[in-house]
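Researcher: First entry.
Model:
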Amino acid sequence: MSDRILVLVRHGQSEWNLKNLFTGWRDPDLTEQGVAEAKRAGALLKAEGLKFDVAFTSLLSRAQRTLSLVLGEMGQESVETLASQALNERDYGDLSGLNKDDARAKWGEEQVHVWRRSYDIPPPGGESLRDTVARTLPYYNQEILPRVLRGQTTIVTAHGNSLRALIMVLEKLSPEGIMKREVLTGVPMVYRMRADSTVEDRRDLAV
């Protein structure tokens, strides 16, 4: 197996995922299911025999707690960890904290669908996925990728859309392609990287 390993994990289910709320930069905790998902991710990664050299996460507690639970399950609590706002979830602006059905009732199903699933149209006061890519990608290129290319086995625990920004680049997806890509909670995506920073292969670890 290549030494250049990058693992991406979306945080486990949060309380607001469960309630069908737009979350963004708000900071709810994990549900019991989310804790179980994070621990399961750690068990799957441990079974792969991976030993992490460095970990990256966002400033939001659901991602940080997921990382802590993953590393705890692996017996690797002392891994160097770096947290950055660059890895925060997409900011949903005025939609944050709203139930998705209530948002549809207020603005109409078509408009909410545009905000959720278009690449470059942000919700009021918030970010589009293009905006999220614009803040996430430079951090990946400057901080995360160099560690991977040096042979440091690296884990990133973050959010559906900040991880989509990375997946878009790693897998060379179009804006249309990345908007259709589902990123499941608590499922590790293991990338083996070539020396030129392209992806050799990717596997999702699931039970």
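Researcher: Second entry.
Model:
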Amino acid sequence: MRYETLAVQQRDITLFITLNRPQARNAMSLKMVEELNQAFQFANQNPDIRAIVLRGAEGHFCAGGDIKDMAGARAQSSNTGDEDPFFALNRAFGHMITQANHASQVVITVLEGAVLGGGFGLACVSDVAITAAGAQFGLPETGLGVVPAQIAPFVVTRVGLTQARRLALLGERFDGHEAVRLGIAHYLCESPEAIEATLDDVLNKVKRAAPDANRVTKALLHQVGTIEMEQLLDQAAHHFAAAVQSEEGAEGTMAFVQKRLPHWAQ
């Protein structure tokens, strides 16, 4: 597929998606949202892809939503009686971030420079987040007179309601050290070389995990708090029984006994 706002490349088990609007600090346009949806759909249809790496071009992850799109929506709103274009614009981002949140792959974000607004939201739905110490995080929406509407629920899930209130209502800005302390990011890196070394290490760990077991485990984790506990544990037991009896389970057990790597880790 051809992309205008992304650079997308598959290497081994990983799909690398780079937000590629460096002239705008990779601000998220509606076109970028559409292309991210397409990239996630491609990954969902390709079982060979076991990890997705999201990062930004030329030193910034994402500076939030593109203000030009809001201006375009305002012009559209005055010229048409159709669906509210501001609603459609905001909701399109919500559909994309939900798709990212529920991707069956391990989603890894590499956070550098600006990690604001929508970029902050993407960080909050990643399974693993690697941050530069000097990255700048924040939710600037209320300072612009708007609302972090599609992002807020994912921020609450990531850091808890108490911290989310502070971050959203004060528009706090903070660096990678604080992002790790809050649980937004997992790995803190002091140099570009450390970021690349950490990313390589994380991808090697993903490769050692069985693909189907990882997919089922991620889906199970997403169900916590959404259904009654006994029902969840019943489902989990069925998943466990199926995994033990699967080809993947047999291979994993045999590899352990024979003191070798299972085929998916080679």
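Model: Note on the second entry: Strands lie at 6-11, 14-19, 51-56, 106-111, 114-116, 128-132, 136-138, 173-174, 187-189.
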